Amino acid sequence: MVTSLFSSEEIERFQRDGFVVVESLFSEEEVALLGQIGRADLAMQQATFSRADGEGGAVKLSVENEVGEDIYGAIAAGHRVVDRMEELLGDEVYHYHHKMIQKEAKVGGAWAWHQDYGYWYNNGCLFPDMASCMIAVDRATQENGCLQVLKGSHLMGRMNHGKVGDQTGADPERVAAACERFELVYCTLEPGSAIFFHSNLLHRSDQNKSDHPRWGFICCYNTKHNDPYKESRHPQYTPLTKRDDADVLKIGHAQWEQIQADSSL
Q1: pTM for this one?
Q2: Which of 16, 18, 209, 240 has its Cα between 20 and 30 A from that of 182?
Q3: Which InterPro entries does this UniProt record tie to the protein (predicted)?
Q4: Domains (ranges, CATH) in the chain?
C-alpha cells in the first residue's frame, strides 16, 4: 500500500493556488551541508553565470541537466521530492534540470515576472504538466528577495514572454492585469523548507538589498506523458532512478570531505 505524502487538502490547494509549501522538508544538517558545499564547490562556481534583471542588478545561477553523484543529485532524485512531485502532477516524472540561485547580500538581482512554462514551451513540451521544487538554502525573507507568486495565476494558461534585461519575462500588460486580480504572496521560507509550484504560476523576486544572502536550490521536473517532441537544451524523457533520502547526508559528507582534500593540495 502506497502512503500519500500530501493530504487531499494540500493537493487541492496545489491545483487551486498553483503552489504548496512543505515546512522542514530537509533537516538543518542537510541544508547546512548543501549551502556549505555549494559555496565551496569550485566546479559549480565555474559554471555559474549572471542574468541582468533590467533594474540595474543581476542574478547569479548555475544550471545542471544531469543527476550527478553529488548532494545536488541526491536531492533532485530523492524520494522526498520526486514522490511528492508525482503526487501533485499525477504521473511519473523525470528530472528536467536543477539549478542553484545565488542571490548574494546587497548585490543579488531581481527576477522579472514569468512562468517557467513560458520558457519550456519552446523546448517542445506540449503541456504545462511540469513543476518545480525550490528549497531554501538560506532563510528567504521579503528583505532578501524571496519568491513572490500570484496565487491561482497558473489557471490563466501560458502567457507570451519576451526579453527583460538578459531574462525572459511575461507580457507586461497581462502581468499588470493579473496583479490586479490575483493575491500576491511572499513565500518566506526557513532553511530546509520548500515550495512546490506549477510551471504556469506567475512568479518573480526582488533584488536583495539586505545584509543576508538568499540562496535557493530548485529541482525541475517534467511528466512522462509530456516528453518533448524535439531536442532542446534540457533533456527528453529518461526514467529517473530514485535515491534514498539518507543519501543526502551520506553523499554530501563524502563530497565535502573531497572538497576539503582538494583544497589542501
Answers
A1: 0.95
A2: 209
A3: Phytyl_CoA_dOase-like
A4: 8-263 (2.60.120.620)
